[in-house]
Amino acid sequence: MTMITTVVFDLDDTLYDEVEYCKSGFTSVSEFLSNLPDFPQAEHIFDALWRQFNAGNHTKTFNAALNELGIDYDDKLIRQLIQVYRGHEPNITLPRQSQQVLSKLSEKFTLAILTDGFLPSQQLKVQALRIEQYFKCIIYTEQLGREFWKPSPAGFEKLIETLNVKSQSMAYVADNQMKDFIAPNRLGFTTIQIIRPARLHLESSQEPDSEAKYKISQISQLPPLLDKL
User: Are 113 and 138 in contact (CB under 8 A)?
Assistant: First the structure.
């Protein structure tokens, strides 16, 4: 059996709770809007955004919150808000458990990140979490092109090439069954799903190869699992 030498992590809802990033983004958007003429106070705007988001509206949150507040808007304003959200400096911190696990694993394994998402946002998250020192390689699939977001195998193939390792000696740790595990399963990675209690993506997929080989409920279970493997 091949030894695992390399552990690759997804970012959002894997190393920290993505909902913390959403809160931080909504705070920035609320502050931006509250400075416009005739807009309510930031906390009123935030409450409306947060209500919509918690009701499950994750795609048109801004439109729905502005409708709820009875505020007129156009596409241009929505585009501005998306920019504010994606470009804000996130107020997020790496959970202590994640920090301990990265610290422990980096003594024994080569660590890498492979993450989808809009480039400035993902880079700003990595900076805010202060995790760069743990990783030999960070692949933002957006740099390869939007069409190479997961489930495309392109990011994983790039990792294999960059780190010069066989896929059989790599593990991929991620959260989202809809897109995270299809490509690494087909390429021969060991796949591990982390099911964080506050995670945003709860859907399960019927797609062949979409299920991770192993499941854990917290990141602290990762080192003993890797030892077993």
Answer: yes
Q: What pTM was computed for the model? A: 0.93
Give the closest residue to 220 by CA, choosing from 196, 187, 198: 196
Distances, alpha carbon 124 to alpha carbons 73, 85, 120, 129, 156, in Å: 28, 11, 6, 9, 22
The model's confidence at residue 201, banded by pLDDT at 50, 70 and 90, is confident
Report the mean per-residue pLDDT for the chain.
Answer: 94
Which whole-number Å values give the CA distances from 141 to 7, 41, 133, 156, 158, in the listed order?
17, 37, 20, 9, 10
Tokens at residue 38, please? 């005739």
The string of DSSP codes covering 161-186 is: HHHT--GGGEEEEES-TTTSSHHHHH
| 143 within a domain of the structure (yes/no) | yes
User: Is residue 10 located within the same domain as residue 115?
Assistant: yes
Do 200 and 132 fall within a single domain?
Answer: yes
pLDDT value of residue 174: 97
pLDDT digits (tens, 9 = 90+) for 142-172: 999 989 999 999 999 999 999 999 999 999 9
